[in-house]
Amino acid sequence: MKNIGEKNDFEEKLKSNELFLVTDSESGSKSVFPIIPDNNSKTVLVHVDKGLIKNLPNNCRVCDKLLFVDNTVFENNKNISITCLVELKGTSNEDEVLGAIAQLCQTCNYEEVKKYTFGRSFIFAFIVGAPSKKLPRLLNTNPELKKLSRLLYAKCALRSSIKNISNLVFYVQLDKNRKNALFEGNIAPYTIYCYKTQYAAVHFPSMVLKKIEKGA
Prior knowledge:
The protein is an alpha/beta fold. It is about 20% helix and about 30% strand.
């Protein structure tokens, strides 16, 4: 088995400080997650569906992408490791968001995924919308969302730093009027409003780590 980042056909190394658009062109989805990897962080994009995991049975589901990050900073610790599960779900349908949550939960059960989630400092999940559709925001009282948050929390090596497990899940909504990426909402899980420009993309993963640091 090759090491992570060693020229697997389903992995893609991303450059620090450069805008990158996480998309799913094969499905025709208009969902986009615009990120700028933090300076000095080592970030690898993993294509999960039909890449890392191929030939799934019809009743099995996985998320679209993983973001695997090393050498990032949290509370002055420069050796933080992060894995993010990404489901590109450009929808305004609440049932489809519930389906996305189920996909994220199921993804963690696959042996192929476990090498990307074992021993990681933090593990997050992102449900990503599209510019033309308002992504429904399920509250942290939703049973399926609670299940996902607990699953992620159980896999985090730095659980003691997490004051609110709902901070491990984020919604991402594209808005062409945004001049910079911002959180919206008074309670987790939060929505990140952003856009696919250098100024309005998500600085990753420093932006989401701030929510863990604040414990909001």
